């Protein structure tokens, strides 16, 4: 039996009728780009998240690009972001001629370290991108406080974290702007591509809506240079169906994650990497353990926050141990994934930095492994 990371055919099966009805509705409407479905979806997801403005866009990468562009990021500007993230976070900064300034991540939750964000704020800092990695919110309070002190806007890259909370606050409602992705692997994945930007700021929302259609409010009258970042009607219609089931889907993920934690503890003697949250920046230990120790994903915000488990990521310490485990699981038919084999400061398009500058990120790249949420682990490893 093969266990894939994600089985979308099975996940969509219960909503098949609703998805087909959504398709028929769009087919019969004759309108395919930025129409009634997109508008309805924007309203429904704004209500779901609890934010005044939600703007549907082409994908999560473009959402980041548009957010940065709306904040005026351009050549020479610095934007602080984690090095341990998906490429789009840093790529969006570079696409506008800006300079991504990297920070390391915390052992507790793999999220960016607030203390390093604070220490890297300088005169060229134009924005901060806090990524809510793997479905868990970064610790936002110290980041928001430092940003407010310096008058710098914060973008939440919530591509993996729709529905996650930090001290009761929804991802995408805490910063100046929030960006989301509806790529099929995300928790609200569409049957193609899509993205979203959230904000409380009406004038930023207005500006982003213009940038989405080549900077024109009135067609063919361009106030600024934007691009084609439009969301399709068919994707919005599918997303409306899946949004109705999102709450239940996230509950199921949490149940599956709790079960997997127990299984890892009983079968592989897995332990938590730290006794308490360290993402506010206390000295990290990078858990000096016997090679081959399995470290559980530590839910930092436990009690105050909610993880959405977009990815269930463990760490296996020691040289080569992660890859050995991956091989054993593959022999058992269990597919796994590595998020991410290279940090951003190690990418050839950005590499200007010393090896070893971001020790946690480099360790994560060698030691982390994402497991399918639904799997039975072999007892021997
Ligand atoms: C997926 C992802 C994106 C990009 O979203 P796309 O819709 O694939 O363009 C951006 N940031 C993070 C952290 C992501 O995981």
Q: What characteristics describe this protein?
A:
single chain, 381 residues, alpha/beta, Aspartate Aminotransferase, domain 2, Aspartate Aminotransferase, domain 1, 2 domains, 7-stranded mixed β-sheet, 3-stranded antiparallel β-sheet, 12 strands, 36% helix, 13% strand, binds pyridoxal-5'-phosphate
Structural overview:
There is one protein chain. The chain has 381 residues and is an alpha/beta fold. It is 36% helix and 13% strand. The protein contains twelve helices and twelve strands. The protein has helices spanning 8-12, 16-29, 36-49, 60-70, 87-95, 114-120, 140-150, 202-212, 233-244, 246-268, 321-331, 359-367; strands spanning 53-57, 78-82, 99-103, 125-131, 154-157, 165-166, 169-170, 177-181, 195-199, 294-295, 312-316, 368-371. It has a seven-stranded mixed sheet with strand order 1-9-8-5-4-2-3, sandwiched between helices. Strands 10-11-12 form a three-stranded antiparallel sheet. The chain has a two-stranded antiparallel ribbon with strand order 6-7. Helix 5 links the parallel strand 2 (78-82) and strand 3. Helix 3 runs parallel beside helix 9, helix 4 (60-70) packs across helix 5 (87-95) and helix 6 (114-120) runs parallel beside helix 7. The longest helix is centred in the C-terminal third of the chain and has 23 residues, at 246-268. The relative contact order is 0.16. The chain binds pyridoxal-5'-phosphate. Pyridoxal-5'-phosphate (PLP) binds at residues 59-61, 85-86, 88-89, 131, 157, 159-160, 181, 183, 193, 195.
